[in-house]
Amino acid sequence: MSDEPKEFDVRDERRMAETRWTAESLPKIEVVAAEVPPDLTSYVEKWAISCDVRRGDYYDKQNKEDRLAFHRAVAASEEALNRWIDTPPLKGAKLQFLSMMKAYGEVGCEIAYDERQARKPNPAHALDGGILFLVLHGTSLPRRQ
């Protein structure tokens, strides 16, 4: 059997780097400025990555503040962008924006997850309070047998 990966094999980071499926190996994204909203051109050039593997690698290499800035910028124009993308024909810059919108959705999932985690009560806090109560009142925890 050959150790060579096939096109759709799952790869670890080492194998991705060897086969150049990384953010750094991504060809430069060329944007025709006249076809896109000017305030989003820089985000399209960075985030319009159609390859899920490379987009994931790029995502992992961006700091959280940059991801949130990207999400805020696109969110401000999301409705207008969706209307524009939905208007035929679907080609050129619209395809780049569709790829960017995939990344936008992925950052949105991260934001939603973080918000859910922030609202979720932490059971460790309740336990800390219980132990503090026991310590202050001179009571000890029962020992496990």
Structure explained in plain terms:
This protein is mostly helical and 145 residues long. The chain contains seven helices and no strands. The mean pLDDT is 76. It is globular and about 45 Å long. It has one domain.
Concise overview:
By secondary structure, the protein is mainly α. Helix content is about 60%, strand content about 0%.
Give the N-to-C terminal Cα separation: 54 Å
User: Tell me, what's the shape?
Assistant: globular
- Rg from alpha-carbon coordinates: 23 Å
- How many domains, as an integer? 1
- Unreliable sequence segments: none
Instruction: Give a quick account of the main beta sheet: strands, pairing sense, barrel closure.
Output: none
User: Can you give the mean pLDDT?
Assistant: 76
Instruction: Determine the number of helices (DSSP H or I, runs of at least 4 residues).
Output: 7
Topology as a string of helices (H) and strands (E): HHHHHHH
Helical content class: 55-70%
* Class of secondary structure makeup: mainly alpha
Q: What fraction of the residues are assigned to beta strands by DSSP?
A: under 5%
- Strand segment tally: 0
